[in-house]
Amino acid sequence: MAKKKVDQPLQKRSKANPGPAFVWVPGFLRAHWPALIILAALAMIPYWQSLDYQYVLDDQIVISKNDYTKKGLSGIWDILRTESMAGYFGEQKDLVAGARYRPLSIVTFAVEYSLMPDNPRIGHLGNILFYMLTCLLLYRILVLLFPLAPDRQWWWSVPLVAGVMYVLHPVHTEVVANIKGRDEIMTFLGALGSVWFTLKYLSDKKNLWLILSGISFFLALLSKENAITFLAIIPAVLWFFTAARKDDYIRTLAPVLGAAVLYLVIRYNVIGYFLSSGKEITDLMNNPFVEMRLDEKLATIMYTLGLYLKLLIYPHPLTHDYYPYAIPIMNWGKWQVWASLAAYAGMVAIFFRGYKQKTVPAFAILFFLATISIVSNLVFPVGTFMNERFIFISSAAFVMVLAWILVERLPVWLPSRIGLPLGLLLAGVIVVGYGVKTWNRIPVWENALTLNSAAIKVSPNSARANTFMATALYQEYRATDDPEEQKKILGDMGIYIRRAVDIYPAYFSGLTMYVGVLAEEFRYDNDLDKLLAGFRRVFEQRDYLQFIDQYLDFLDKQPQYSQQLTEFYIQVGYQIFWQQRRNKQYALKYLQRGLNLMPGEPTILAAMDEIKRG
Q: Residue 512: how many CA atoms within 13 Å on its side-chain side?
């Protein structure tokens, strides 16, 4: 079995011998079942612990608080004909550039919800199974691109080494352990399916495979727009690994191009535009570059691109939160920016040096650059600086070229008695390291508290991470009846939420939680001055928060607070809303509150008269 050659090489990568057209040889399952079992087990065993985990992060947007998903099967049509966050918000909000139309994964959530309502277990199981299928299909394709040599053991081959490193890579934990990450998995699964059907077509020239390639690609696009990058990957596979002729390129590209056009037409009709609604995204949490100059934006993007390379090579530390300002504002005076630029420039040079010779590094670089381009913030803004899930597809290029170096090149570069053992040793260290990191990282995704407790250690300068940590603690605060424990939790909440509004003073979610924390603190210390100082801080950033008005209604009924409240209303109404912001409506509103407490107060009357005349 070890020496059985199941698939002939798609291409002998040399200028002298471009290789014959691929001949598909049956018997893959019979020859590769040990590898398939290993990969399936490695995909399932570590992530099996996630079956009892809760909904976290954007799971509420696509599942637990999505009205369409919660309809089950009857909500599928609504999912297909609306923007992907409409089921959560009740309408299309256009909060992020380009909006989102990724219905297919949400459709699967609706099907699961019809079977097991409000039960994350089935969602986690679905992710594990989809991930396993994706890893197996990646291995299948790699076997076609790197067939096992007759003198090579099955367990020491580029496809298996790359497959094991891929399935265990720690940056994938976010995608698999977070149910919402299914869109990434299904996108790659569909795109790989299109590649496989394309290669199958080259084997026997049956048009059925072209039709299936187009369908698979269309499903990938319905999962996430990132699949569009495979319009470059599919012809690249043909160029680097096959002896395809010009008409093969045309025929194999036709169905995927057709699928892409169909998807874009549907997307346009659902969302109403392609890339921009015409509305400027000014919220820092949905446009992290809004406060930067162009040179700072480009430097920060280059810095994050370097971080992606670092995480592929050394995936530590990991976090789910790269929002402002977990990633600092960078400039071209930082060495990290230039190091990243040099790395990418080197990759481009290697590509141009090797693409004519059809080298593996050239293909891997093309694969990586194409798939990362769409999430780089260079093509269009993606709503955050970066995310580990964004390199779920790109990481396949990294493990492929790494496995190729360890298995194929080290024995060539070094004496065989050194190259082979060194390759085995390095591969073993990498696999064990990845496996341990993945095993330890998965439990972070158990619930909101575990997730945010881990994130805040890595992303202490993220306003979002601090706010989410305070929110998770608030749930713990409400769940306990122990006064001492409540007081301790409240103290921690105050630390995190104040840090959040220090980082981003205008952060709506942060200010909302800040007001809630202030109100709870007031229950313990009755420090009205501190409470009102916090309210003033909010009003300096926002015109209105409903909870503040509701709380002020309560305080207005307490006679002992009338003097302090009146002074507060004068400060807020006249100084903040009028002198600073020229907002007549809110200035008069809060001055009137003060007048209700102290009728005839001359300071208030004079201020109101000035405002009305102004």
A: 10
- What's the pTM value of the predicted model, to 2 decimals? 0.93
Q: What are the boundaries of each domain within the chain?
A: 31-271+292-440, 548-614
The secondary structure element, H or E, covering residue 220 is: helix 207-223
Is residue 160 within 8 A of residue 38, CB to CB? The reply is yes
Sheet strands (E) in 412-524: none
Provide the terminal-to-terminal Cα distance of the chain, rounded to the nearest Å: 90
Residue 97 is which amino acid? Answer: A
CB proximity list for 159: less than 8 A, separation 6 or greater = 35, 139, 142, 143, 145, 146, 148, 403
Q: What is the pLDDT of residues 227-277, one digit of tens each?
A: 999 999 999 999 999 999 999 999 999 999 999 999 999 999 999 988 777
**SS3 call for 386:** coil
Give Cα 12 distance to the centre of its chain.
Answer: 37
Structure token digits, residue 96: 């992020």
Virtual CA dihedral for 492, 493, 496, 499, nearest 10 degrees?
-110
Q: Of 550, 525, 606, which is closest to residue 573 (Cα–Cα)?
A: 606
pLDDT tier, 23 (very low <50, low <70, confident <90, very high otherwise):
low
The CA-based dihedral angle spanning residues 54, 59, 63, 68, taken in that order and rounded to the nearest 10 degrees: 160
What does the alpha-carbon distance between residue 289 and residue 462 come to, in Å, rounded to a whole number?
14
Nearest CA-CA partner of 83 in 265, 244, 258, 269? 269
